[in-house]
Amino acid sequence: MSYFSEYVKASTQIAAADFAAEAITSAISASIEKKDRQDLLKTLVFVTSYKATLTRDLKKHIVTIMKIIDEDISVFSCEPEIDGIYRDLQKMTSATFFKEVLSTRILREKIMQMYIYVLFLVSRLNGDKTLSPQQLYNLSLIKKQFQFSRQELGQCYSALAKLTESDTDDIAEELEMLTGDSAMRQLMKDYPDLVEGDTVACIGQDAETAGVSEETLQAIESLYHESVQRVSEKDYETRLIFGQRRPQLLQKAIDTYAKEAAKEMPLVQFDESLMNNGQAGVLLTSEKIYLKDPFVFASVPIRNIVTVEATGTTIKVNTFSLQLISISKNAVQELAEFLRQCVSILESVQRDNAAESEGGKKTEIEKLYYESLKRSGNATYASIVLLADLKPDYVRKAISVYAKVNVGEDVILLFDGFGDKGNNGFLLSNRKIYIKNGTIFSKPVSIPLKDIKTVTTNPKKLQIMVNDSKIEAGWLQKPDAVEELASLIQQIIPLAMEV
């Protein structure tokens, strides 16, 4: 018998089969492990009393919830344990508390089960008009740390509605109003002392800061659930993680191979590490996709992604190949398709955001650039034809080797012609184009943009001619890619001169 059915038998006589969250409760074992009970009790004490006074009335509320899983419990029998937990809390930050509670938790069903009990307690406090700002803030910390998806929250609200014989939508509306981002911002504004000394923080940016709408998050979350259902492999479901539902694994990924993701919004993680510790795999954020295995350590901006494909057990993003041995070939194919769909959504968001942002010649140049990437359909093209801010280290190398850029010049486009991190190719600024080919006898050339009369190609030799100066473009491999780059140069030059 599940936790809920025990409560139902004692309190409401609602059959367990009637629960909207039957999928959750069926996964919980009949007996309650000691660790589960302790974690639940700790969490109930946390939400009522972290940075607050633990009164006897609050203890009674906590014990009422605990009676759902232990009919014989009483305030008298449980009070010493509650007091001990409360004393320990006074010495902890919230980050320490969650690290302890979440450290051994893998099953999402158990975390959701615990959250439903917490919501039940909060609803009782709210009904008694005794819910304090501190308790509301503590609840928001729990919600943020557990990183529930919208689907999971829906299951929790449905289960709580059954427990309290209420309407699910009414429950959801009330709790989302109490714990939503805007409500929390207002709460912290009205009570700034709530967060004093508190070390809990969401890893990376939140949705609003990252420019990712709730609609976008829902779309990606829906794709996630559909992907997991299509594959029906335990390893795929365990290793593919939506949002920040496994904060320790996410932090490991950021520390190991995705340091820039700390400033972005994490959306999807695939953990390929042998020890399930997050140190290898794929991390998709609002801005980039990060890849790590023993042979690959790479990141690709969303708008620079041309191809995401799978061959056998290898997934390939542009020119970077990642070997996946933890899941089947079919699952690798599904992961590639899932990531491709997510990237498509994020590209659309970025285009819309760019259209709404301040205009200007640079914005027009960026638009031309990304349109060129898509037309090329060439992963190599995307990896060596770069807007300057995408690879600042390559730009610095080009400036130190061959592009003697003057003060006040604005670098716009870089062609890493030999794939050697900026040593050769061309650099285009708002004043000149600087050219350096990777041969012994090649000398750097610079041409003022106002003096450029022609930009032509020699498709057979994979070359671009700017006036009489040659750009070796053999690394593009295909004549149509060379033509595309020449066309891009022609389109950018008049705009660059106005930057």
Keywords:
499 residues, alpha+beta, five-stranded antiparallel beta sheet, 20 helices, 51% helix, 15% strand, disordered N terminus
Describe the structure.
The chain has 499 residues and is of the alpha+beta class. The chain has helices at 3-12, 22-25, 34-49, 56-66, 75-89, 94-102, 108-127, 133-146, 150-164, 168-179, 181-190, 207-210, 214-231, 234-239, 247-256, 329-356, 361-376, 379-384, 392-401, 479-496, and strands spanning 240-242, 266-271, 281-285, 288-293, 296-301, 308-311, 314-317, 320-323, 385-387, 411-416, 425-429, 432-436, 445-448, 455-458, 463-466, 469-472. 40% of the residues are buried.
How many distinct helices? 20
Number of strands: 16
Helical coverage, percent range: 40-55%
Sheet having the most strands? 5 strands, antiparallel
Low-confidence stretches: 1-32
Terminal Cα separation, in Å?
Answer: 70 Å
Strand content: 5-15%
User: Which radius of gyration do the C-alpha atoms yield?
Assistant: 28 Å
Oligomer: single chain
Averaged pLDDT: 83
